[in-house]
Amino acid sequence: GKTTTIKSILDITHRDKGSVKFFGKSSERNLREIKDRLGVVFDDSYFYDELTMAEMKSIIAPAYSRWSDSRYKSYMEKFNLNPNQKIATLSKGMKTKFALVLALSHEAELLIMDEPTSGLDPLMRSQLLEVLKEYMKEGGKGVFFSTHIVSDLEKIADMLILIDNGEILLKEEKDILLDKFRKIKGDINWLNDSYKKLFLTLKVTDYGFTGITAHAREFENGIKDIVVERPTLEEIMLAYIERRRGNVDSFN
What single string gives the DSSP state of each residue in 5-35? Predict the structure, then answer.
């Protein structure tokens, strides 16, 4: 549902209902102005393979009122991209970099990115995330991006939205979410039905139990010899999905 959501936001895919606002303005009534203030990076490249990056840039640049050739040249050098290279010869990572260069070169106030780091090697992914961090530090800038790589969220995200099969399971600030939940481990003999209800997810084995909960204080006050740890962001998000799908031992 991630890509469909982004395409619906951008009016690329038809919406059955609802409306979208950017910068407090309706996307239907102010589409031209809004597009001038947006930068978009998709997982799939929509460039013309037979053109060079310089030729592609010459087509795109006139569409934006705040296009900056100096920023374009700076980012092309930063990403080590040769403007005379044909798009057909670019790797997936290079195409993503070029798409980001174009988005950043017209002073976009909001970047919308669909799986921007998917398929990139760790070094290239790290470089891209650093550029996004620098972009947001400029002030008055934001990034809305979809990803299935949770480590990217841990490095850069402020607000998280978790979608599973088209349904929003979670919408929360990352730091609040990490402070809210704890991972509890303990002896199964201490676990009764009232405690089981306090878990978001719970796994039980012959050796004990492990669960994710937002009620760690109740366990600390009522059960002896438990281990309380901070879960990773991935563990919390998986817990939400497992709870929804019923793939949890104690809830089957």
Answer: HHHHHTTSS--SS---EETTEETTTSHHHHH
Place of tokens 């790797």: 91
Question: How many CB atoms are located within 10 Å of the residue 9 CB?
Answer: 16
Provide CB contacts within 8 A for 161, sequence distance 6+.
168, 170, 171
Tens-digit pLDDT profile for residues 116-151 = 888 788 888 888 899 899 888 888 899 998 888 888
* Distances from the Cα of 157 to the Cα of 16, 53, 153, 179, 246, angstroms: 29, 30, 5, 15, 28
pLDDT, tens digit, 9 for 90 and up, residues 189-221: 888 888 899 999 999 988 899 999 999 998 888
* Of 34, 40, 12, 35, nearest in space to 100 by CA: 40
What domains are defined for the chain? Answer: 2-157 (3.40.50.300), 177-251 (no CATH)
> Hey, which bits of the chain come out as E strands?
21-22, 25-26, 38-41, 110-114, 142-146, 159-164, 167-173, 182-186, 199-205, 208-213, 227-229
pTM value surpassing 0.85? no
